[in-house]
Amino acid sequence: RKISERYLYNSGLAYLQRFTSSSNNFRKVMMRKIDRSCKHHTDQVREECQELLELTVEKFEKAGLLNDEEYLRGMVISLRRRGLSSRQIDMRLRMKGLEQENIKQELQEHDLSTYDTEYNGDVYAAIIFARKKKIGPYDKVEKYEPQKALAMMGRAGYDYGTAKKVLEMSEDDLEEYQNNIY
């Protein structure tokens, strides 16, 4: 379809009803739509469509539909609960167009408010990761040898100390940590 202000607004609204997004990621998604339209309708000027997109983004930001701070806060909580390391969270959110300093600050604030210290966030996330992958203390049938489990945690972005600590946890230590996970 041809790009118009109304079309961008409606398609952007439809996108935001299905997905939460940062402003930069929303721009990328909508620019792909604009590029497809400009290839098909050669009479359209891409730069004019970009200006319409910026107006649409401003409208959505004023309406509160695009709020990078809230998006960042929600994503940090969600990704931490899924057992992702700080490195993975940082990488994923930077791909969504958020700034590294903001990500680091929000991650620190979340870990301090949810766990005892900012470093415990990775330990709790590593426990969740180990439970999901059935490694370390959750490997009851000893399917994975310790080096392979350590390598899995390393690939998931956990540092050596955190991975080693979680993989060598006793059931008592694990139970103590599990009582504090959400």
Q: Kindly, what is the distance between the CA atoms of the first and last residues, rounded to a whole number of angstroms? A: 46 Å
Q: How many whole angstroms does the radius of gyration measure?
A: 21 Å
Provide mean pLDDT, rounded: 91
Helix count equals 10
**Order of SSEs:** HHHHHHHHHH
Structural notes for this entry:
The chain has helices spanning 5-18, 23-40, 46-63, 68-81, 86-95, 100-114, 120-133, 146-155, 160-167, 171-178. The protein has 182 residues and is mainly α. Helix 5 crosses helix 6 (100-114), helix 7 packs across helix 9 and helix 8 (146-155) crosses helix 9 (160-167). The protein starts with a helix and ends with a helix.
Fold blueprint:
Elements: H1 5-18, H2 23-40, H3 46-63, H4 68-81, H5 86-95, H6 100-114, H7 120-133, H8 146-155, H9 160-167, H10 171-178
Helix pairs in contact: 1-3, 2-3, 4-6, 5-6, 7-9, 8-9
Question: Can you give keywords for this protein?
Answer:
mainly alpha, elongated, 10 helices
Produce a short descriptive summary:
This protein is mainly α. It has ten helices and no strands. It is elongated and about 65 Å long.
